[in-house]
Amino acid sequence: MKYIGNKSRLIGFIKESLLDAKINYKNNVVYDLFSGTGSVSEFFLKNNCEVFSCDNMNYAIAEQYRKLFFREEPEFSELKNIIGYEKLDDILEYLNNLEGIKGYFFENFCEEGEYKRKFFSTNNAKKIDAIRSKIEEWKEFLPIEKYMFLVGILMNSADFVSNTAGTYGAYLKIWRSMALKNLKLTKPEFINTGDIKLFVDDVVDFVKKNKKADIVYMDPPYNTRQYPANFSTLESIVVNDNQELKGKTGLRDYEKQKSKFSIKKDVKDEFVKLIDEIKANCIVMSYSTEGILDKDFILEILNNKGKTKMYNTSYRRFKTNAWTDNNTNLKEILFICKVENS
Fold first, then answer.
1. What's the distance, CA 7 to chain centroid?
2. Phi and psi for 259 in degrees, rounded to 5?
3. Looking at the structure, do residues 127 and 106 belong to the same domain, yes or no?
4. Do 342 and 212 fall within a single domain?
5. Does 320 have pLDDT greater than 60?
6. Which of 211, 231, 257 is the last residue of a domain?
7. C-alpha angle 341/38/221, rounded to 5°?
8. pLDDT tens string 324-340
9. Nearest-angstrom CA–CA distance, 31 and 101
10. Do 231 and 270 have their domain in common?
């Protein structure tokens, strides 16, 4: 899944930094805050950790249900008497063969719909409507984990054929080749180590409610772009609330999902509040040299919590579906704080 701030390319850097700081990253209880699509959670799962993953966006947690929740391929015995199938391959084939319908996603996200938006081809928008409607019919029969797993598969497959340059702040005027392919649900690979629990929550509220962790990893947004605006379409697929959308690009009302970490006047106070609430042996935080929080301020607050070491590596800025050249002087920073009196 295309995602701003995805740490997949930086897992090696994070691992090397943890090793240098002599932080054991195996067999631990880990909180992953601002977890996004779960790249860092995946790293800790592969090292047999118990992970508690928290993000305030439903689409992010749906993606993690898709690729991180199940240790082995689930069966859907709950659907055997309804559609005659229980194996995942058969369930996905059944959904892939549904005839498309003209519903909410057709009207809001394709060129032939009422609002003429070109996020998806007409056929794919109709397929999204049919599949999402069918999964919703099954909600009363399925455990929430299996329901969200199927929703995550649909969302990920829709993202693959979207007519966007990486985010959903706008659609492309000309159809990209991938957007003209037919939407097809595919099953993910499964991680057979570790365990994960997933939470849609505000991170400050989350750490207040939970006990001490061995490691808290956090990857807060570092600029003023709000994630709900950039991924509004995917949120609509997951939440399925048929919300009335606004503007040319069809934005959801995301007032309640705005992050204070992306608001200059609020970010310092919110950062201090979060760090103060964290109960852990170690705090690991990813940030950027172009972030709205100054690295010296971050160091000051973390040093009040415990001895903190800073690591950095060069990286290229992600710009829609392309990367800028290497000469941006941008650095990805990793702060590792060993909490005192923890």
1. 11
2. -95, 130
3. yes
4. yes
5. no
6. 257
7. 70
8. 444 457 889 999 999 99
9. 41
10. no
pLDDT at 323 over 70: no
Beta-bridged to residue 288, according to DSSP, are: 332
- Whether 235 and 227 have beta carbons less than 8 Å apart is answered as no
88 and 5 belong to one structural domain: no
Is residue 138 in a domain? Answer: yes
Instruction: Note whether residue 248 is domain-resident.
Output: yes
**Measured distance CA(250)–CA(231) in Å, rounded:** 11
* Number of independent structural domains in the chain: 2
Average pLDDT, stretch 171-189?
A: 97
16 occurs within a structural domain: yes
What CA–CA distance (Å, rounded) separates 237 from 241?
A: 9
What percentage of the chain exceeds 70 in pLDDT?
94
pLDDT of residue 7: 76
Residue 7 makes CB contacts below 8 A (sequence gap 6+) with 14, 36, 39, 40, 219, 286
Domain identity same for 159 and 107: yes
Is 66 a domain residue? no
Range(s) of the domain holding residue 215:
1-21+31-52+200-221+259-342
Classify the C-alpha dihedral 225-229-234-239 as positive or negative.
positive
